[in-house]
Design a protein that fits this description.
The structure is a single chain. The protein is an all-alpha fold. Helix content is about 60%, strand content about 0%. A hairpin with a 5-residue loop joins strand 2 and strand 3. The longest helix has about 30 residues. The N and C termini lie far apart (about 95 Å).
Length: about 350
């Protein structure tokens, strides 16, 4: 029964709220459910407002909010939005992890028995959901050390594909292979490492060229000259302190072939397979298209294009292998103005 002063005992409050006495005592002991006073015998008493507060606590706990967050919501008028947003992020992360585990299990279930050992090895090296730390580290080690930090971060962001939130088994395998590729291989030589150039001019120009080429790559159009190719050539000319001449373009086309790096080519192949259609072409795909456009400008078949290099630019491995030849690797005759 309710006391004459209109206050309820702990049992009465529990009955009205549809919870146990133990639950009411738990929230009271943690300061979430203030008492309205005590009876003459020292028993807890609660006012009618405690019922509304207890119902709100139950609703928040049903959403699996920690007791500390429940306290914030009760005490701070503007805390609910922040707490809910953080909780949503946590739940989303858990769901993503579960989707990656499900896709990984399906990958193992559906593959031929003789492939399971290799796939288990690949999956064992990747966290679920995976992070991109190893991929980002690979690019940071590949980029020129004197590249401005903000620009380097932009290049890394463009070069590192983000794992899909709801992957297919095929995407799980592709990401695992991509991770293994960069984790176990030495990074390629920094792009144009053999040539005196200004990276701070090269990389922004390449990014603009890739953006200009993206619609043609996405549409599957044949490589051809135009604004994208002009910007591509201009990026190298600016970086190398040269002029965009016919001779320069011929030398650049040759450099694209001699400096191709199979490791980077494989990276961009896997990254392209991992990307969703709405992501658009990778920088590597755009770079390959522009290299083919440059070569076709000299009558060479587009199908013979060089493999793309760091952030879509060519690496220097081919140039290293060419050491000892009559011409210095990657360098055109001195009369060409490089």
């Amino acid at each position: 029964m309710t006391a004459d002063d209109g206050r309820w005992s702990i049992g009465e409050l529990a009955e009205r709220a549809g919870v146990t006495v133990k639950t009411v005592r738990f929230y009271s002991d943690r300061g979430l459910l203030p008492e309205a006073g005590r009876s003459g015998g020292g028993h807890r008493r609660y006012g009618p407002e405690a019922l509304d507060r207890l119902r709100l606590i139950r609703s928040l706990r049903t959403l699996d909010l920690p007791v500390s967050d429940v306290g914030r919501v009760l005490d701070e008028d503007d805390a609910l939005e922040d707490v809910v947003a953080r909780r949503l992020s946590e739940v989303s992360g858990r769901l993503t992890a579960l989707r990656w585990r499900e896709a990984s299990l399906r990958l193992l279930r559906d593959c031929p028995p003789e492939q399971r050992a290799e796939r288990l090895r690949l999956l064992g090296d990747v966290s679920l959901p995976p992070d991109t730390t190893a991929l980002a580290r690979f690019w940071r080690r590949t980029l020129p050390v004197r590249l401005p930090a903000a620009l380097a971060a932009t290049v890394v962001d463009a070069a590192v594909p983000q794992p899909p939130a709801d992957p297919t088994p095929a995407q799980v395998l592709i990401f695992a292979r991509l991770h293994a590729l960069v984790a176990r291989a030495a990074p390629p030589v920094v792009h144009l490492a053999d040539l005196e150039h200004r990276p701070a001019l090269l990389y922004p120009g390449l990014g603009e060229a890739y953006d200009l080429a993206a619609p043609a790559v996405r549409a599957g159009r044949a490589p051809a000259g135009g604004e994208a190719l002009d910007r591509f050539v201009a990026a190298y000319a600016d970086a190398l302190g040269a002029r965009d001449t016919r001779a320069f373009r011929r030398g650049l086309a040759r450099l694209m072939v001699t400096s191709a790096d199979p490791l980077i080519g494989r990276y961009w192949q896997l990254a392209g397979e991992l990307a969703d259609e709405q992501d658009g072409p990778t920088p590597g795909a755009a770079h390959g298209w522009l290299c083919a456009a440059l070569k076709s400008d000299f009558g060479e078949p587009p199908g013979s294009r060089a493999l793309p290099g760091p952030d879509g630019a060519p690496g220097s491995q081919g140039a290293q292998e060419a050491r000892g030849s009559q011409e210095p690797p990657g360098v055109v005759p001195s009369g060409w103005g490089w």
